[in-house]
Amino acid sequence: MRFFNRVTLQTPESVELDFALAGIGNRVYAMLIDYLIWSLILVVALFAWAFFAWQLVDAWQSLIGTNRDLELWLIAVQFLLWFVIYIGYFIFFEVFWQGQTPGKRFVKIRVISDDGRPIKLQQATLRALLRPVDELFFCVGVLFIAFSQQEKRLGDWVAGTIVVQEEKPDNNSNFSLSEDAKNLADQLKQEGDLSALSPENFAVTRKYLQRRATLTTVAKAKLSNQLSQQIKQIISWEEKPGKEINDNLFLEAIYLAYQQQIHDSNI
Amino acid sequence: MSQNPSSRQSLGPLSVGNIVSASLRLYRDHFKPYFLVSLRVTLWAFFPFVAILPLVVIAALTDNNIPLILLLIPVWLAILVYSLAKALTNGAVISRLAFGTLTNQPETVTDARKKVAPLMWRFLSMQVLLGLVLFLVNLLLTMAQLASFGTLGFLLGNLVGRDSVIILLVSLLGNIIFSTIYFWIYARYFIPEVPLAVENNISSFDALSRSLSLTKGFATKILVTILVALVITIPVYIIAGIPLVAGFVRLFMDNVTVGGVPSSDMAIQLTGTIVLSIVLFFLINIAALPFWQAMKAVIYYDLRSRREGLDLELRDSLGK
After folding, report:
1. Are B315 and A200 an interchain contact pair (Cβ–Cβ within 8 Å)?
2. Which of B3, B101, B313 is facing A7, going by the closest CB pair?
3. Count of A–B CB contacts within 8 Å?
4. Which ipTM value was assigned to this complex?
5. What is the C-alpha separation between A107 and A165, in angstroms, rounded?
6. How many helices (H) and strands (E) does chain A have?
7. What are phi and psi of A161, to 5 degrees?
8. Which residues in chain A are contacts of B313 at CB distance < 8 A?
């Protein structure tokens, strides 16, 4: 079954873009982080303003005398400040960080226009202004996101935006390979039938190498053994008796050999 | 905009947000079977409270015959234990179904129940063990908190006075630190029923240690996942609270305006709202439980992918 909604967008240039939608979990998580940061900013700003206002009223009093109006004005500004920070936080970040607030950046999601372009000021503003409505009873927006096909809350409908996951291409090769693997790779290229390896086999090998650092010792031993047995069968290659090769080394070599083979055939 | 056709790729490790979304999606796409199993869970959990009524009636009809009552108590306890085991087993059925879907090996409810039902007493003993562990942890932490922050507060109190804000802050800090430790341990024991339900023939003790070993290094992640899931489910729980809050507000208003003692009329009204709230809470629990049980399965799946390469194995076996 499909666990995450995907959309294919048609840009004005007729380019098709495929995105995974952010999903309710990521969006609520990002919101929690944003509200944490946002409330810290708010507390600091309101205290700073209160302190400033206090001083001002004091100074005014000693110079001119009591002024009720001034105090009311200062309180009014305080409310305005609260509103500006509440709305401004989201508008500022969504416009200047290409659709990402700090929370969204942490969770790796992004707001974009329905046509795949970065969102504009007026779209960010509409989203921010409709935020209080979406948060009515904690649930209006949540229900809209969780139960609609495009996962749009009211603000998204009005502004014409969607929230998508940032998908990094899965070619992270941040794993160390030993020197011996290079020699073994050369040997495998000559002795084994590497053309029998499917891209799928290669992907599994790469995934294993990417992830082996976090695997438990037992799982690592079991998986590497299982994978290398299967691959040896696929490429019809057997190690010489008495020269048993470590499973991890073998998989590293397979990774290198396959890559080199692709590289060679492209030249 | 169009939706892509589904791909039969296995999911692999998931982020916090995606764990929550996937759990909700699992529930949404299997609403009827999950909900019906959840209904069983709740009915079994409720049964002992219903069963107590006829026992009370029997006791009353026989003029409070003491030997009979002494006999009825173990009968009720047996019912309680059996119902609890049944409720736990049914909850695990949902987790098993969810895990089956995650690993591309879906089962019917009947099949899943057949697999899980014989383990009924293991689920119970596991829950009892878990309860004991958490109770002991709580006890030890409370003692440690008293010994450390309690003593500190006492000494500070002698220095700066009993009513100082500092004392309040120190005890608050103590509460935060020790609750964090408690929740951290709670997270480590969050998923034992899933290995018990899906792995072959493991004991209740093994299930607990499986939970402990799989969650090693991921307690914070689990706690954040629980927090996000709570924020999503809170609105529905608020609904259950509305009549209760409304009842208390009315009681308060009446008291203010009349200024007298609560009348029996008010007591009846209040009892009514409490009963209504309990009923609502049960209904909402039926609806929310599958989400939590599915989430436990998704967390278990995520941890096994990360720590045991579960998805690598499967993808390979699919590719064959």
Report:
1. yes
2. B3
3. 130
4. 0.84
5. 9
6. 10, 4
7. -130, 160
8. 223, 226
